[in-house]
Amino acid sequence: MKNQKLSDFNKNERPVFHLTPEIGWMNDPNGFSRYGGKYHLFYQAYPHGTNWGPIQWGHAVSEDLIKWDRLPYALMPDRDYDSGGCFSGTALTCSDGRHMLMYTGCRMNPQGKELQTQCIAFGDGVIYEKYEGNPVITASVLPEDGDPHEFRDPKLWRETDGTYRAVIANYNRTSGAQVLLFRSTDGLAWEFEGVLADCKGKPGWMCECPDFFPLDGKYALLTGTMGEVDSICRIGTFDSEHGRFCEDWWQSIEQGFDFYAGQTVSAADGRRILIGWMQNPQTAEYREIDLPINGQMSTPRELMIRDGKLLQKPVRELSDYRTEEIVCRNVKLGACEEETRLDGISGRTVDMEISIKPDDRFELFRMRFAAGGEYYTEFTYEPDKSMVTLDRNHAGPGKTELTKAQAVVRDRGGRLDVRILLDRLSAEIFINDGEQVMSAVTYTDRRAEDITFFVKGTAVMDIAKYRIKENK
Ligand code: FRU
């Protein structure tokens, strides 16, 4: 690797509140769970390069979802059945108290195609050992026309009666992408229960990384979609008798560029917390070539259902890392045709809440951040169209075709509330109390710290800005 020195990267450039691999590649979150009084987060890792390679499981633990400590790699692709990689999966506490992981073992068949089976490992929170009876679910149990090459990413849970369930993504040559439901009494012997949900009519030809959980009296089914830049949340009910999910509503989880393979954990206080890979298969090549890492996790998000739709907010634990508060109220914008700078409003590790209210004629609001020299990333709001746009065309190094994302927001008569989280290599924008989220990885020179505002017409803005402390 032609890399910047790791010590320099760690000091000045490593994201402050996003989990990153110590070195090399990271993709999906795996095994997001609570065990031994801590949150555990595993992830798809390849430490020998900054591209995807034979994948193993990285491992980190946290007490508050913000400060993570890395532990030894938990799973290596060292068995015949997972020689092509230990693909994504989940974790739970099994009846005898051990931490149990279920993951997809991938190996190549003689024709060079991936064969995917589901495997188990047990551990104590640090060291994990693969079960000698692996694989525990093979393609032999797939429904007719189920494709053994596209059968992956088990999500595990336990029912109140102690039995185990898993949902696993599969491509069916007749029916298209499906999420399949499996059951087990001991976690080792599994039987196919049925098709939980068909994904036909949804974006993408194949779904990946399903998560399925109760939320605010409903059930939510999350999937990543292959062939489209999308992660989807379906909200509905679970007909447990027939093992079938009945959908009322679906929406994209992310309106920006970089969120994929989201996985949730239930916090001790009952909150449902989502974390995702802050990138996606289409943007994986978008990177700054000299960095010793490629990949990071999103800020964990609290999930809620309001009026039948999904809301996402940054976990409240992030507020403990706020410092240096600056509050400005009733800032009148638009009087002059120039970018406005406000005292103390700048930085690259920022948590900032902005409320915009229209005043007379209000045509456009624009905020530029990670700005300096030729660089900036731009968020605009056009009230007449209720349209927001995130544009990273001028963000600096890294090549991607995904540079401009747009979303229609709820019409609130020109009002808009945004919370923006900036870290050294990213921005996440939560719109109108989490109705929509736009995330973008940016590789802008870390010295580009300006934040500026511009309004066409006039508008009034309240702003509260904090620096996020380093959590070493
Ligand atoms: C999603 C994914 C998963 C797979 C893993 C391999 O990004 O393709 O379906 O398990 O990545 O790293």
Short précis:
The chain is mostly beta strands. The chain has one helix spanning 6-12; strands at 24-35, 38-46, 56-62, 68-75, 85-93, 99-108, 114-123, 128-130, 146-158, 164-172, 176-184, 191-198, 206-215, 218-226, 230-239, 244-252, 260-266, 272-277, 293-294, 301-306, 309-314, 322-333, 350-372, 375-382, 387-391, 404-408, 416-423, 426-431, 436-441, 450-468. The protein is 1% helix and 56% strand.
Q: What's the CATH H-level superfamily name of the largest domain?
A: Glycosyl hydrolase domain, family 43
Beta-strand percent range: over 45%
Low-confidence segments, given as residue ranges, are none
- Shape descriptor reads globular
The helix count comes to 1
Helical/strand content category: mainly beta
- The share of residues in helices is under 10%
Mind summarizing the main beta sheet? 9 strands, antiparallel
Indicate the radius of gyration in whole angstroms: 22 Å
Indicate the mean pLDDT: 95
Spell out which ligands are present.
beta-D-fructofuranose
